[in-house]
């Protein structure tokens, strides 16, 4: 079975609905036909200035949510990035074949560093996509399920794999992004042209998967729409309604045309009320499962240790090969 790799940053106390629909749902569905490795990318989170205690807790919370969403540790290796040394080792090697300008063109870096200002941004933010490329190439992943915002990073990853292979001989699989269009960009409920994001200034437009169901329902009911009354999918003219339909369709397993038909002649209030129920119906059991897993941290840590063992075996073989290719003298 082809290898799959993906990861999320432990940058908040909860995943949001965008992470869930854009990534986690795909991860779960792909467990059947692929050989997946799902990583909590804690080293990436060091680019943000987080309290060490909080980061440690969020790392467990993120792993618990993978499992709560349906990742089965018997099928998928689930582990924490820093537990396998190869990620940082390969990132260094890849950074030495990455052009400065190439890295500087990454739009996420440009956005993030603009937010921090020239001196506030750290070098880690700049080299972040190279570490991400290392995550993927270390395991010969053929496919990488992600949301739309990661497309450019995947393009860089492919370029680095091809460049390394042509300079040093066939070493890496060139991975393909796996991006499901319908859910690749879930938008903010208050600002429906911007993606739903952990770093949004106001959290009112964000649905946290671990939030109190009452808060979830309220946020859906107060989603920004438009001044028309017609419920139809029109991304340009009606981004708010389009987003609600997208979420509804993905969670309820009904097509958007079916929903348009069902809500013909009905008001935005009806749509929001029903959608709130659908979302709560998913979030409530998800939250209960995650909390139960967090109640037994020893079991969670055992799953992560097992996942790290499986990942480490692959990573060590790959790293030895990479070092050999580039001319590192093996320790005798
Ligand atoms: P992160 O932690 O920001 O997001 C995790 C996943 O959620 C997707 N996503 C969304 N999908 C749809 N709509 C949204 N509003 C939305 N917001 C986030 C992201 O695309 C991602 O798939 N750099 C990555 C983490 C990473 C990684 C990797 C991913 C590090 N190494 C290797 C894949 C492979 C990131 O910051 O994702």
TrEMBL record:
Recorded GO CC terms: cytosol
One BP term from GO: tryptophanyl-tRNA aminoacylation
Entry keywords, A to Z: Aminoacyl-tRNA synthetase, ATP-binding, Cytoplasm, Ligase, Nucleotide-binding, Protein biosynthesis
Annotated localization: Cytoplasm
CDD domains xrefs: TrpRS_core (cd00806)
Span(s) of short sequence motif 'KMSKS' region: 195-199
EC class (word): ligase
Binding site for ATP: 9-11, 18-19, 147-149, 186, 195-199
Primary location group: cytoplasm
Subunit structure: Homodimer.
Family membership noted in the UniProt record: Belongs to the class-I aminoacyl-tRNA synthetase family.
Function: Catalyzes the attachment of tryptophan to tRNA(Trp).
UniProt cross-references to HAMAP family, sorted A to Z: Trp_tRNA_synth_B (MF_00140_B)
NCBIfam families in alphabetical order: trpS
UniProt-recorded name of the protein: Tryptophan--tRNA ligase
Organism encoding this protein: Kineosphaera limosa NBRC 100340
Encoding gene (name): trpS
